[in-house]
Amino acid sequence: RNESEVQCQSGVIPIGRNKGKGCRLLGVTRIREWKSLSDSTPGVLPLAPLPTPQSMQHRLQLQEILFEIRNGLATKRDVAPFHIASNKVIEEIAAIVPSSVDSIASVSDWSEERRREFGPDFIEACTKFAAVTGMSMDTDKKSQWMLTDEQKKKLDQLPPTTVSTYRVHLQTGIKAVSCRYLAVPYSLSVGAGDNAQFGGVNGVYTPVVLCLGWSASPLGGTQYQPGSQRGSARRDQEQSGKKHSVSEGHHGVLPRGIRRLQ
Residue 210's pLDDT is what? Predict the structure, then answer.
């Protein structure tokens, strides 16, 4: 072994490539000290806690309730559901969980007239649901404390549409990654009517995509559910060689990457 290898193993690091030019011992003091982001950068927003699977499930349940209320209001007035509130509005209401008309005013793309007319029905549903599940209400108001005074001043200078978009980002900024929490150990019902079954792969329950008697698993492939009445009708028609179209109420073409299990 040469002199450099001996020096490295003994803890002595040679300076330069030339031999005999001087060596130094490794330092024993810490050169770099790590600081928290809040200490080194003033005015940093604290990270919001990740939503738990239970909170995500409650939000989805609240959305379903709000959708039913919207459809009921649309039926009474003989109008399309989107005339009452769009899907985006329903999602924002479920994220805010408003307790008053002032809280629901932060919902974007919803006219003031519709808020006054239909808002109380949604507020009543949110209040009852929060009382049962213990969900936090008025999350829009609670997100305002995260803003510094300087950020609030800048927010006031933005156009109204941009302000509402930014508020929604504060409320549901984690929404883009929250879909992974749907992969919790419970299954979704597959099929139709009382004969609905549960889908799973190798004994592990996984989320499935409802497709009129067919279940599409993220693990690949589709599984036919013979207990479904619509699925049985589809199977009989396939055996007879008939094709299916969307107008018949079936998804005749499965998405790319999805195959039928034989």
Answer: 34
